[in-house]
Amino acid sequence: FFFSFANFCGALYTQRPPHSASAVTRAAARGGRAGDMSIRLRELIRNVRSCKTQADERACIHKECASIRTAFKDENNELRHRNVAKLLFIHMLGYPTHWGQMECLKLIAGSKFLEKRIGYLGLMILLDERQEVLMLVENSLKNDLQSSNQYIAGLACCAIGNISSAEICRDLSPEVEKLMVGSNPFVSKKASLCCIRILRKCPELCDTFLERIGTLLGSRNHAVLLTCLKLMREMCITEPAMIEQLRRHTPTLIAALKNLVLSGYAPEHDVHGIVDPFLQVEILTMLRVLGRGHSETSDQMNDILAQVATNTESAKNAGNAILYECVLTIMAIEVESGLRVLAVNILGRFLINRDNNIRYVALNTLHKVIAQDTQAVQRHRNTIVDCLKDNDSSIRQRALELVYALVNEANVKVLVKELLSYLLACDVEFKDELTQRICTVVEKFSTDKEWHVDTIIQTLSASTSFESEETVCSMIALITSTPELQAYATHKLYAKLADQTNQPVLLQLAVWCVGEYGEMLIGGVPAGVEAEAPDPQTVVELLTSVMRSPVADVTTKEYTINAFVKLTTRFANAPDSLALIHKQLAAYSCSMSLELQQRSVEYSSLLKLDAIRAGVLERMPAFAKKDRQAAAAAAAALAMDGDGPSRGSASELMAAPAVMAAAAPAPPSEMDLLGDILGGSPAPAPAMPAMGGAPAAPP
Predict the structure, then answer these.
(1) How far is CA 152 from the centre of its chain?
(2) What's the pLDDT at 478?
């Protein structure tokens, strides 16, 4: 960039004759170093580049800054533009150059174009809109806007469009407005861009430029049309109410776009065989803004959008850019369903493009439009799934997000199979998230319960580090609510347990099912299971190995102790197994884990109470999975009362069931049960119901 800047500035001096000896003599007579001050920008760059250390660079810059200061003090007008150019280079290196700002204003006030060009360049680089010095240049800007030289007027527009303050924009807007509708397209396009800055600083002037839009759109110059469209977009952003007034220009935009699409070869605007793709893209963008939410305007665009979609070549990036913008416009406005299908098909063609950038854009856009036309996107399902095998990780990630959105009850088995294949090959850092997504998809869309169990087991087996309490609860809810699935799930999970799985979720599910449905495990093998039924001794020994496993956390061991005590009623006819269970429970009565110790002691005491043990250890009834998000939302709603949270409302609601339970008389069977557990006088108790109420405290 430095050398490009040097070429730009150096070109200013190639046409100039060498300085006369008298000029050098006059400089020397004033006490300045003529040789140092006449150094060119290229030579300064060369000197800086040749410095081997930062100290050498600082010395070189300080020496040159001293020479430039001397020239500024001596009012050396002949070399001022050259010194300012060197000052800009020094500024880009990071050295302070604020002391040269006034020299830029002097160059701007000059009459020569070369001086003005360097002056305006320095003004835009060395100053910004917050500095008060900028107010001194307002009169020069106004004079230059009225200049007959188009290049000088263009420089003034460029300066206003970059660093002008709100006051300058407000004062000079009438002059800029005149230039917009002038006969010179070079000045008109720069004035249009300048108006964008004016609108951002002074939004109240939006109505002033509205009447000039029609004149600009009537121009045959592509640059003027392009800048006019930029101005229209800025007006819509600054003042959304302007969209309704700008809709009257829709036929003009459609005609301009049609002319571009159907015109022949134009060498001055051709880009890889496409006529001015920049203007086409900008027109499509503006049509999208005008047609969104307005059916009448959208109807006018149907034909031209179909022509753009069918007549634009996609062999080059220029054509792909137009097609992409056309797709966005079709999906944003109210068009016919056939046109939407055409837009989705264009994105489908993008998916088989060799350019990864185009494929990424297609996946990203399909994910946004899938809610509008799911069936059209489903036709490209196979191509989307193939993107999961791409070498680019970003494409795989976007394809994965799109596959999640495509899953439904009809294709869940096919897409989950592909997701499982991707799970085996994906990076380790993505495995846990992908596993959670697959479990959620299977839970939401699965219609085959046995396939549901097999898929969850297969998914968890592929992600050994995945942990999720939500997945455990979901599977338990499914198994308890489906009696015909209980034996199948227990045998499948026991097979994984026998294979010494280290997966935490699988361990917890397997241990829970073995304890809950142990009699089904040893009673027979259901259809679809190839393994033989184990004997009770083998089952208890396997649970014992889980307790000793180094990969089993405290939660898994809690599940296992629960399974032990449950199996005392399931394996009632296996005395050897019962003895081993009692031994395991006693072994953890002195555990360092308080929870394990408490469970072990309480369960050992419970096993001595034959009258109530069977009722306490009955099979759990079916229960539904809790919706945690809904519960959190309900809690937040209860906590809010009026303008702020109410401390009493939520606590009162939570305390109400406890008060009601305490006030209600306890059933005799529950009172007897509590008396037995707490050491009171035993009393005959009837069989416990499957789902009893919460026990009340004894009197």
Answers:
(1) 45
(2) 92
φ, ψ of residue 468 to 5 degrees: the values are: -160, 115
Report whether 497 contacts 533 (CB < 8 A).
Answer: no
pLDDT digits (tens, 9 = 90+) for 611-659: 888 889 888 888 776 665 555 555 566 555 444 444 343 333 333 333 3
Please state at what angle helix 575-587 crosses helix 594-607, rounded to 10 degrees: 140
Give the whole-angstrom CA distance, residue 556 versus residue 54: 63
- For residue 512, what are its two tokens? 């829970």
User: Taken in order 194, 196, 198, 200, is the CA torsion positive or negative?
Assistant: negative
Q: Are 638 and 650 in contact (CB under 8 A)?
A: yes
CA distances from 373 to 295, 343, 360, 614 (A): 18, 10, 20, 57
Q: And the tokens for 418?
A: 């592909």
Task: Tally the residues of the chain.
Answer: 699
Q: Which two tokens stand for residue 529?
A: 């299971």
What does residue 645 show for φ and ψ, rounded to 5 degrees?
-70, 145
Residue (of 258, 626, 305) closest to 476 by Cα position: 626
Rounded to whole angstroms, the Cα distance separating 508 from 8 reads 73
Q: 273 Cβ partners below 8 Å, 6+ apart?
A: 313, 316, 318, 319
Task: Dump pLDDT digits (tens) for 259-269.
Answer: 998 887 778 88
What is each CA distance from 558 to 36, 469, 501, 563, 657, in whole angstroms? Answer: 86, 14, 18, 9, 29
Alpha carbons within 13 A on the beta-carbon side of 129: 14
- For residue 640, the cross-strand partners are 645
Evaluate whether 55 touches 62 at the Cβ level (below 8 Å). no
The β-bridge relationship of strands 274-275 and 270-271 is antiparallel
pLDDT at 665 over 50: no
Exposure string of 369-395, with b = 16+ CB inside 10 Å and e = fewer, is bbeeeeebbeebbebbbebbebeeeeb
Query: What is the token pair recorded at 145?
Result: 């806007």
Average pLDDT over residues 425-451: 89
At 230 the pLDDT is 94
Instruction: Quote the CA–CA distance of 341 and 372 in Å, as a whole number.
Output: 10
Classify the C-alpha dihedral 366-371-372-378 as positive or negative: positive
Backbone phi, psi, residue 392, to 5°: -80, 120
Stretch 496-519: mean pLDDT = 91
Q: State how far the alpha carbon of 68 is from the alpha carbons of 35, 71, 113, 402, in Å.
A: 12, 5, 22, 61
Q: Are 566 and 585 in contact (CB under 8 A)?
A: no
Q: How far is the C-alpha of 123 from the C-alpha of 138, rounded, in Å? A: 12
One-letter-per-residue 3-state SS of 541-576: HHHHHHHHCCCCCHHHHHHHHHHHHHHHHHCCCCHH
pLDDT tier, 688 (very low <50, low <70, confident <90, very high otherwise)? very low
List residues bridging with 274 in a β-sheet: 271
Residue range 582-600, pLDDT digits in tens = 999 999 988 899 999 999 9
**With contact defined as beta carbons under 8 Å apart, do 429 and 465 qualify?**
no
Type of residue found at 552:
A
Angle between helix axes 317-332 and 337-351 (nearest 10 degrees) is 140
Angle, helices 504-516/483-498, rounded to nearest 10 degrees: 130
Considering only CA atoms, which of 468, 408, 474, 410 is closest in space to residue 441?
408
